[in-house]
Specification:
mainly alpha; 47 helices
């Protein structure tokens, strides 16, 4: 134990003895002495004792502003910024003149990019202390956020001339100069700062970054080498230098640094994790995985490396591998420390829930709660389980437990509000979200959730306000701006909807969304020419957009100009000859035009290029049936499978032929063979799950269907068609709330699909929402496309209309 540590321990003991008789004094003096004791503990870096004494003080005097402020400082030391914000906010409400609390609160506002609040608090302090350095720096930052760089430069210059300079002053002077595109002045400011504060690492780092931005790579390397000299324990600096060489294509120099950075025979978890992130940021997934896998082999008991490798699998959309990695880790011979077991179990439960495998998540949640019923993160997951199962009351209890222990757990407010909304208690849901916004006014997801609740309450003005709040926080969020446009469109306020969509195009001309939304608005107003013109403009600017290509081709077909649609696809294929999507689209156009002979070649090419893509195989199967070539197609596909039992395209096309011909048992057999012979064949697994669920829904088959669809989702996370299958399995199992929760989750992705609209409507009926169900059924049946369950949808709509 070092001498400094021993001194701190002794100081804490002396403090305990000195303040042991605090209770002998009167209430006011007792509070003062307790506060002094808290400060002394903090000075001795004994945060635990400080927190315990502070808790006693606040129980005696809950309105003590200074105590609230110190509670925030402790939370900040524990890296809990949200909780610190709550305490600092409480402190300034109790005593606005508590300057230190105003300054710290402004710093948290700055971290959240709430520049208006930064300026307001800085001005408040400067009215009382015109030369407060902290407030002046915060004021400058707020000015710079508004591009008022000249005013900021004046304040900073005055601070230097008054001797109020600091490393932060020179950093801001350099930032001002950089914003004014004066790199020489920025360099001069940083060098002046380094002359005065030669050991301030951030000045050297800023200078190195400036050199890098201005292309002075050798100067940047020298500057970073000085940083490494000053801060040799920081493992990230050498990788930054390697990154400089990498960016300039000087790969030998970059590789030399990387080789020196990590001994291949050393586990070095921190270095391996940093190097893996370095590779991932440069899209070198194989190299990142190799670095982490080698570390796991060297030190299999390192949870840091296990966690890093599992996170890599998740980031690269391989949850199945992440799950297998963690399960193997939990089975490590010799056992693991309890804390690491809990971390692995928590991560597994999280992954399963994120991939809709509720039943698989539950055992891990139960295992953790068995040891600690108050575990915050696990109670949060427990609440999510109840919510997915439609069990609103237990969900409310679980999320309330979380918030009682951690009031700044923002996601808990979201899910608690959702539990209230699920019971259609919209007032309570709104109250929960408003409480969360008092703690985190900059949380966009809380504003959006509140907008959703206000829409359910039909309080359209309040909903609009929340969308505007989000755009005030982040004007670059074009997706929210599109939601605001959709909101106006739903209200048939076409002028305001048009304004929002047009603004997206103006601000983000390379984004397809603005053109798509504006085109659909024009179609809603029956202005076909304007709709097509918008799509043509968008496609000229975004020639790689599959969405714009599809919608523009569909528009040409709608106005009976198929040759334009065909020409569009053929021109794209001239420069994208290996794009399955475009071949499939061209084949679909020919199919729609009943030019079956011309459709064959592009559809076969699409299947060849994307053998596991269900849509291409589905379209090809449909073509064979329409041409009356079913027998020949079946014969050829069977022969293809005889030659190569691992041919995924043949299985999918053959299975779809039998499905369309209503030979469901034979189709099921084909998909069974497919998943047996082709590893990781998610499309066949999903098709088989749907067949078992739709046409043979015994309990055994439904259980297997759920297992198959969940496995498919782990192989292809994010696919709405697989989520739809999972939901339909739950529906047929009688888990109607769970089915509804999943179907609502993908509403924006596949809302125009007739079969999806049918599935959603049936779940809505089972949960007592007949009016919404009727709307969805009308949408499903408006399209003449055949789908599984169409006759049932027609009967159900007729029944709903009879009931009124």
């Amino acid at each position: 134990m070092g001498a400094f540590t021993v001194m701190k321990k002794m100081l804490a003991l002396i403090l305990c003895l000195c303040f042991g008789m605090v209770s002998c004094y009167g209430p006011e003096e007792q509070s003062t002495r307790m506060l002094q004791q808290v400060k002394a503990y903090m000075e001795a870096e004994d945060n635990q004792q400080a927190a315990e004494m502070l808790k006693k003080l606040l129980s005696l005097e809950p309105d003590n502003a200074e105590a609230s402020y110190i509670a925030g400082k402790i939370e900040l030391k524990n890296k809990n910024a949200q909780r610190a914000y709550e305490w600092f906010n409480k402190a300034v409400q109790q005593n606005p003149e508590l300057i230190d609390a105003q300054i710290d609160l402004a710093r948290l506002n700055l971290a959240a990019k709430q520049f208006d609040q930064v300026a307001t608090r800085a001005d408040f302090v400067l009215e009382r202390d015109a030369w407060n350095s902290d407030a002046l720096l915060l004021k400058c930052t707020a000015l710079m956020s508004r591009d008022q760089t000249d005013q900021a430069a004046t304040i900073l210059g005055d601070m230097v001339s008054r001797g109020q300079d600091s490393a932060q002053v020179y950093l801001l002077l350099a930032d001002v100069a950089a914003r004014q595109k004066d790199s020489d002045a920025a360099e001069k400011a940083l060098e002046s700062g380094i002359d005065k504060y030669p050991r301030e690492i951030m000045l050297h780092v800023a200078l190195a970054r400036l050199f890098a931005v201005t292309g002075k790579i050798d100067e940047a390397v020298r500057a970073f080498n000085k940083v490494i000299e000053l801060d040799p324990q920081n493992i990230h600096h050498p990788l930054t230098v390697a990154g400089l060489y990498w960016a300039k294509g000087r790969m030998d120099e970059a590789q030399s640094l990387i080789d020196a950075y990590l001994d291949e025979n050393s586990a070095a978890p921190d270095r391996r994790l940093a190097l893996a992130q370095f590779y991932l940021s440069r899209n070198k997934v194989y190299e990142a995985e190799a670095v982490l896998s080698a570390g796991v082999r060297l030190t299999p008991a390192s949870f840091a490396l296990q966690h890093g490798l599992s996170q890599l699998y998740l980031k690269t959309r391989r949850p199945k591998e992440a799950i297998e990695q963690l399960q193997t880790y939990l089975e490590s011979p010799g056992g693991l420390p309890d804390g690491q077991v809990r971390s692995a179990q928590l991560l597994l439960a999280q992954i399963y829930l994120d991939h809709h495998a509720v039943d698989q998540a539950v055992p891990y949640i139960q295992a953790i709660l068995k040891h600690n019923t108050e575990d915050v993160e696990t109670n949060f997951l427990k609440g999510r389980v109840h919510l997915l199962k439609g069990e609103s009351e237990p969900a409310v209890a679980a999320f309330t437990t979380v918030l009682n222990q951690r009031p700044a757990f923002i996601d808990a407010y979201l899910f608690l509000a959702e539990a209230r909304r699920q019971k259609q208690d919209y007032n309570a849901a709104a109250a929960v979200l408003e409480k969360g916004l008092k703690i985190a006014p900059g949380a966009k997801k809380l504003h959006l959730a509140l907008a959703k609740v206000q829409l359910a309450r039909k309080d359209f003005k309040a909903a609009e306000k929340q969308y505007l709040n989000v755009l005030a926080l982040d004007p670059s969020d074009f997706q929210v701006q599109a939601q605001l446009g959709d909101f106006f469109l739903a209200l048939k306020d076409y002028k305001r909807a048009e304004r929002e969509y047009a603004e997206i195009i103006s601000k983000f001309p390379q984004q397809a969304m603005g053109y798509l939304k504006l085109s659909r608005l024009y179609l809603a107003r029956q202005d076909t020419d304007a709709a097509i013109a918008e799509l043509e403009t968008g496609y000229r600017r975004n020639a790689s957009s599959a969405e714009l290509l599809t919608e523009l081709a569909g528009s040409y077909l709608a106005i009976k100009e198929p040759q334009k649609a065909i020409a569009l696809c053929r021109k794209r294929l001239e420069s994208n000859s290996d794009e399955a999507f475009s071949y499939n689209l061209l084949g679909k156009i020919y199919l729609q035009e009943k030019k079956y002979k011309q459709a064959l070649a592009p559809l076969e090419k699409a299947v060849e290029l994307a053998p596991q893509w269900p849509e291409a195989s589905n379209n090809l199967a449909g073509l064979y049936l329409l041409k009356g070539k079913q027998a020949d197609a079946v014969k050829n596909l069977q022969a293809a499978l005889d030659r190569n039992p691992n041919n995924p395209a043949a299985y999918l096309t053959l299975g779809k032929i039998y499905e369309k011909d209503q030979k469901f048992e034979t189709a099921t057999d084909i998909y069974e063979r497919a998943i047996k012979n082709v590893p990781r064949f998610w499309a066949a697994a999903n098709n088989l799950a749907f067949m078992l669920c739709q046409y043979s829904p015994t309990q055994v088959n439904l259980d297997r269907a759920l297992q198959l669809s969940l496995a498919a989702y782990q192989l292809q996370p994010g696919r709405a068609d697989i989520v739809d299958t999972i939901a339909w399995v739950h529906y047929n199992r009688g888990d109607y709330e769970q089915a509804l929760a999943l179907l609502e989750k993908i509403d924006d992705q596949v809302g125009a699909s007739p079969m999806y609209a049918y599935h959603l409507s049936m779940a809505l009926i089972k949960t007592g929402k007949n009016d919404e169900a009727r709307t969805r059924l009308e949408l499903a049946l408006k399209d003449k496309t055949p789908f599984h369950g169409r006759s049932e949808a027609e009967k159900t709509l007729k029944s709903l209309n009879v009931k009124g």
